[in-house]
Amino acid sequence: MSSQYHAFRRTRVSWALGLSLLFSASASAVDAVYDQLVIQARAGQTDGLLNWLHQQNQRHALNVDQVADWLQVAGWAGRDNEVVQVWQRYHSQMEIPARGVVSVARAYRNLKQWDASLALWETSLQMEPTNDDLRTGWIFTLADAGQYSVALSEAQRLVQSEPTALHYQVLAYVWRAQGKSWDALFSITKARDKDSENKAVKSDLLDAWSTNKIPAPALSLSRTMNLPAEDTRRLELNAAAELVRLADLPSRGEAERFQVADRALARYDQLLNQWQSIPEAQDDCRLARLDRLGALLARKRFAEVVSEYESLKADGKPMPDYIDGWVASALLSLQRPEEAFRLFSKAPAHVEAEMFYAAIESEDFPAAKGIVDRMIANTPYQIYDYGSPVPEPNDRWLTSRILLSHYLSATNDLPVAEKLSEHLANTAPGNQELRINNAAVLAARGLPHAAEQELKRAEVLEPSSLSLESQQAYVAQSLQEWRQFELLTDDVVARSPEEPSTQQLARTRDIRHMYELRISGNKGISSDSPISGSHDFTWNSALYGPPIAEHWRPFAGFNFATGEFEEGKGYNRDVLGGVEFTARDYWAEAELSNQNFGDGNKLGARFSAWHDFNDHWRLGGSAERLSSGTPLRALRNGVTANGGQAYVRWYQNERREYQLTIAPSWFSDGNQRMEYGLSGKERLWTTPRFTLDLTPDLSASTNTKEDVPYYNPKSDFSATPGLSAEHIIYRHYDTVWSQQITGGVGAYWQKDHGTGLVTQLGYGQRVQWNNVLDAGLMLTWDKRPYDGDRERNLGVSFDMNVRF
């Protein structure tokens, strides 16, 4: 029971006891001093009477009334051991009255000697069977001793016989002793209904509301009571902390969560302003600052969470475990996953999912797999609620499988990730999160049409879901559904502007509206190729403007090529401009150019386009006047060519694709060339940071004219299977540094010159930064026959794509 309730009980008993003390003193004492000592004891000054009794006890045995007085007053003074000692000396010598027995029973109860206490309560009840105070004390002790069944039945009998406020308090005490705080709250609420102004009832109700985390009513009630300042501060902190908990509930809408978080922050600011100048309130100020971190986190003010945490940590005092979880979440949102993982590791029991994401984003894949494996091993499919024979689905089981799917995606095991996510989505069709997760895996495999269909199924369940709209926006971007992409992004940004995932989506949209500069080329280091010549150099560049009317982008560029041949140096300067069009499943470019290659300026033109029938099939082609594929040596000798190409691409997923190409050219000297090509990719090996692909390549060509000043075999054929490996050296979110190694060995056949060996090697590195820079450099070497002579080429190629 609360201290207020015991005070109420003591006051009630003390009046009755005082009367008996006066009676016994006046009847047995000859000295008026005893009467005065009794009066002082009633007023709380117990030392005088207790000292007097102790002295008298050393001189001669006390009478029964004096022993009873000693037992009672020593009990008032909290001297439980003294009460027991007096009882053990005198109870066999005299028949001590009920008031003394009760004092001893209470002392044994305080000393947690339950059997002795209960025996004395039962003795006192035999002496005064109708005494309600004795019966309630007995019930309290039964509850303290863990005899809950007897205590509960006796307390309920009291309430049924006389439903007073006191009896409901007794019942509440029994419920609370069993840990059933809600039943206790119900009982003490009934007590309040019986006597709303009773101070002991108010105190118990305040404790019950605090225990059951109902701080707002508790705070309101406390304002009608004369509580110590430290108790009031504790209730203020509890009420503010409740706002923090409410702000973190996922069931609330984004706007409402922010409003609650703002209310919590305003309340903490007010409390800190009130308490910071009070020396004894400094611990409460620190606790307010700690709990305030939760409100800052809910408000997405991640940098402030971390800075305030560092400030609090500087005092060297220990931090509660829940603070580490908050700060780790903020660090994860600030893209500091290594620090977040270290903090999450301090309290893994309740932050497994977030700790998993910190491990993934830290590229610590073994740690992430360990977290998932532990969850799966220790999580049954179904659980039983206490007292229910009906099994319920285990949410933690589902979470563990979702995390496994994310792990598989992050470690490039996309086929297994797709199989798992599809199984989960199909076996729980009413779970929107699983549909969205499956769509994300499909999008990662380069299958946006399939992802779109999966998101359409998810949309039926909750069309306004933020995670759904975000994923739909990314898929719309992949499909070039620009209007849909803009509308979805606008809605997500309007609803959750502070969310890191929203800011990432908004940046993706901003990048699309930037200028784009594309540069590529190569430089021959040592070459004797009859196609490119020696000291060859090519440069291609194009600058694209921001989108106009969603689908159009203007561009302008400059291309340059040069090389030295037996007959002299050749070059080509190409100034160009045009427009790009993109729409769902379509891409097209139209370009006009002015070309200068030694014989004045000539007007060139190009039209290129492709169409996606679905995720797997693409048909594309181009038509050019003054084809960019015309050999530089032909241009050096005044020969131009018009041409084009048509191709069909089959794409299964990120691990397999093939493309068949046909490219005719019509040269100004009357030669007609037809080129054929088949290329592809087959994934051989995948790890989180390494991939190895087989790159088969077949090509052939025919020419109708042989006596020309450029390399022009009557017919030829090459088969050059190769290997392409990529290793990620460093990766941190959108910053990736990687290296590439390529190699191939094949054969080249040329009519009238037989078959020769083709060997190819390459090594390069690539840097991607913040989604606005993608640049690579590769050193290449190959050796192959031309007109029967094996010649080698060593060169370097480069490319760069910059958004600004």
UniProtKB/TrEMBL annotation:
Q: Which UniProt keywords apply?
A: Signal
Signal peptide coordinates:
1-29
Top-rank taxon: Bacteria
Span of domain PgaA membrane beta barrel: 511-804
Q: What are the transmembrane regions?
A: none
Record-linked NCBIfam families: PGA_TPR_OMP (TIGR03939), PRK10049.1 (NF007468)
Q: Give the protein name, as stated in the record.
A: Poly-beta-1,6 N-acetyl-D-glucosamine export porin PgaA
Gene name of the encoded protein: pgaA
